[in-house]
Amino acid sequence: MTSLVCPFLPSLPSGTGRKTALLSPGRQACSHQSLTAAVSGTAARLVAAGLKPGDVVALSMPNGPEMAILFLAVATVATAAPLNPAYREAELDFYLDDLGAKLLLCPKSGFETAKSVARARGVPVAEVELGSGGACDALIVDLPAAAPEGIVEIAGNRSSDIALLLHTSGTTARPKLVGLTRGNIEASIRNVAGTLHLGQDDVGLSILPLFHIHGLVATLCAPLHAGGAVVCTEGFDAMKFFRWLGDFSPTWYSAVPSMHQAILQRAKRNPEIVAKARLRFVRSSSAALAPATLEGLETTFGCPVVEAYGMTEAAHQITSNRLDHRLPGSVGEMTGARVRVVNAAWNDVPTGTVGAIVIQGDNVHGGYLNAPSANEASFRDGWFDTGDQGFLDDLRRLTITGRTKEIINRGGEKIAPLELDAVLARDERIAEAIAFAIPHRSLGEDVAVAIVPAEGRTLHAEDVRSVLGNVLAPHKVPRTVVFLDVIPKGPTGKIQRLKLAELLGLTGEASALKASGSVDADPAKRSR
Ligand code: AMP
User: Fold this and answer.
1) Most buried pick, 206, 272, 293, 464, via CB within 10 A?
2) CB of 177 within 8 A of CB of 96?
3) Dist CA 184 CA 518 (whole Å)
4) Is any ligand 1 atom within 6 A of the Cβ of residue 309?
5) 407-526 is classed in which CATH architecture?
6) Residue ranges per domain, the chain?
7) Residue of the CA atom closest to atom 9 of ligand 1
């Protein structure tokens, strides 16, 4: 049998394999050698179960070292499709079907909804024992099929094989499928590691969800590939963050702006840990970082804060500020991918002029898997339209100013408003419903819905939230529900989703509603 080498792990010079690779709170550290063995062993089991390049393996797993190892193993030999563990039944049903999953991996205990949805769909489930000893303790993956006789060779993914499948919230109610090849991911890993000068002495604190491209590429694969270590946590928790900072002395971490804000707020209560921190830099991506937050972090931790621009379709990073050259408010320079800013005819606009941001590069996907019309609209001459708008300055640094796509960026988590519209349209008490983004102090944007009740029907914000909450993950359920007699339209009679907050006077505090209607905002804070 040929040995299975995970392309996202380093080939370390002999002797250095003993260096730490994975750490996790409450677990023993494991070396690069052990990690490679755990990933290769798990990949071999997947192959023995009959999986091959192109077969989709869905993962519904909590953050932690098991998820990290399983992702690396699946992406070596087949196609990994990580799912948000918060998905409700209807969402899981859609995703498992849309992915054409051949197998679902999830923990032995809990995750009952995912298991029952998979079984009802005829998707085999392999249960994973979550360990408690070493971070790389052999995973007992209860794979359903016996090893086919006579496997002599394990091919693993080639550069053009799809190693990672992620859904992206798009301009349609149906999320689009982004297929990232092994080559796309390897290019993105190189771009991130090169920008940040990641090396063997680095220890990254991984706090982002491992079902999102930012967490997978920037906080897991890039640092490991550089030969460094990753602290695989259970996910972001502002209180535990400082404990981890003290316990593991990371040299860097990457997060979304709302997490940075929560960290800043708690920093004053942890002066000793902050004083001892040995962060080389802090990174931010997935949503706009306010210059005040950047400055606050730099002052607190005494290290550079680099903001990067990334997206699923680019296997994460597109541009980034440099450690020694930063411009607050800008997303920095090209870091591997090429960027142009163009007008409606896809011609370059002059420096300083706002236009559509289009990209090209080895890390950029080759087209959505299930959306020919979206591909037609978003690709031209090998360039991909990101749906974001911005301008380049004299030094070719990019600033994002807005977007043409109708996603809501709730603190880095993307929500397709049409997904909410579609659920609400099915309720007979509602004549018209439209979800839209409103500004939010810490999240950047939050989701809101405007509702025109059906004639003679009354309903309350709580009813609307429960209709949505029954089928959608909690982060998609809006706090702000606005009841209106009529939804304001633009001059052409079309609903202007991107301008709705402004038209309804919801660009400041929700209480400043000036429209003829009522706003019902739930003050109870939900955690991300
Ligand atoms: P995702 O596919 O979830 O990574 O989301 C990608 C989108 O997030 C981009 O198309 C942008 O709209 C937004 N985004 C990512 N990074 C930034 C940033 N640094 N500043 C502003 N928006 C960003």
Assistant:
1) 206
2) no
3) 48
4) yes
5) 2-Layer Sandwich (3.30)
6) 407-526
7) 311
